[in-house]
Amino acid sequence: MPSSPRRPALIHPPPEDFTVLAILHALSDPTRMTVVQTLRASPECACGTFPVEVAPSTLTHHFRVLREAGIIRQREDGNRRWTTLRGEDLEARFPGLLDAIVGAYEGTRPVALRRRRWGGGR
Amino acid sequence: MPSSPRRPALIHPPPEDFTVLAILHALSDPTRMTVVQTLRASPECACGTFPVEVAPSTLTHHFRVLREAGIIRQREDGNRRWTTLRGEDLEARFPGLLDAIVGAYEGTRPVALRRRRWGGGR
Known about the structure:
Two copies of one chain form a homodimer. By secondary structure, chain A is mainly alpha-helical.
């Protein structure tokens, strides 16, 4: 099946165009952070399979922010869009940055969830 | 001189309320990143002394974002407002995070400046 002419080509910046500020902005949103966490656990995901609760158009926006920051790569395959993390490109450009950020986020996330569910404690 | 009743009290969240997402958002702006870089070099700065080119009201907004994320602390002293980095609080809450982010930013910043000034090269 030929690709639809209505879909614009996906733009993926080269690693030398990645900026720390764009990466921080991209990761400062809980939905986008969930996308990144999902991709760190699964090498390639189809677009409808991310564990996020947002409208498809909103998710499309989040993917664009992540793509333009250099964090994810997407490819079309018929009617499906597949997403991967650009882990090697990010690591080459900013060694350790993604691990530091996602590690800090995951290190505190369980505590926050626990508090919200059971109303406090230690 | 008594403090002015027109100025609301400055709110500084306790470290347990810091979130990675708010910190990433706060640091995703070049003016706010410059404030943080300045404070890493100087322990305490008066508000008019930061090397940023924005209107005072805009800078006030940037300070608020940084304050509410837990990144800076501000105190009033007569007509002056003094700003410090909450480096120890940040380090205790998210060890290594601020260093990783600012380090990545500073590691690439000189290259970007060089390109802009001399139009390319290696």
